[in-house]
Amino acid sequence: MSGLAGVLGVFDGVDATIEAIEKLRAAGIKRITAYSPAPDHAIEHALHQPISGVRIFTIVGALTGTATGFALPTWTSLDWPLITGGKPVIAMPAWVIIAFELTVLFGALSTVLGMLILAKLPYRKPLVVYDPSFSEDRYGLYVTPPSGRGGEIRELLREAGAIEVREKIGEVPGVPA
């Protein structure tokens, strides 16, 4: 694939980055990737990111663990019935601990699995738009422009205070389309 794949704007501060995000969103641009030296809630808020779906993996895993925590001892007790001290064969209070432990275990494992799946990890191709200065003191915005709007995006980034605007030609691996 050839042509303009994206525009990368480098910013000095978080305020200019947020201003650029707001201008881009006002112009109808949705595909924006932000790079920052540290997590910043203001950038997350400006990007209007959807809530992560990892929590669905967590609750499904936790409920599966709870069900397994009660089903396994029930099945075991019914398969080998042993009446001890006049207690019923299926004694639920004793299994709450097992259910709790499996809830935590399955919930944690499914959270990690959900994170890996939704983050599309591991990346097989490097992010060629990343700049090492984003880990030190600079902020970056990578924008995948709709057809024919590359010039408009470059101008919006410059107006917002970008100290550098770069173009990426061709297909950029690792950046969601």
Would you summarize the structure shown here?
This protein has 177 residues and is an alpha+beta fold.
Written account of the structure:
The protein has 177 residues and is α+β, with helices and mostly antiparallel strands. It has two domains: 4-50 and 134-169, Alpha-Beta Plaits; 54-118, no CATH class. Helices cover 45% and strands 13% of the residues. It has five helices and four strands; from the N terminus they run E-H-E-H-H-H-E-H-E. It has helices spanning 14-26, 41-47, 54-79, 96-118, 150-159; strands at 4-11, 32-35, 139-143, 164-169. A four-stranded antiparallel β-sheet has the order 2-3-1-4, covered by helices on one side. It is rod-shaped, with a radius of gyration of 25 Å.
| Spans of at least 5 consecutive residues with low confidence | none
Query: What is the CATH domain class of the largest domain?
Result: Alpha Beta
- Percent strand: 5-15%
Largest sheet: 4 strands, antiparallel
Strand arrangement across the biggest beta sheet: 2-3-1-4
Structural class given helices, strands, pairing?
alpha+beta
**Overall average pLDDT:** 89
Query: How many domains, in number, for the residues?
Result: 2
Looking at the structure, the CATH topology of the largest domain is: Alpha-Beta Plaits
What descriptors fit this protein?
5 helices; Alpha-Beta Plaits; 4 strands; alpha+beta
Layout of helices and strands, plus pairs?
Elements: E1 4-11, H1 14-26, E2 32-35, H2 41-47, H3 54-79, H4 96-118, E3 139-143, H5 150-159, E4 164-169
Antiparallel strand pairs: 1-3, 1-4, 2-3
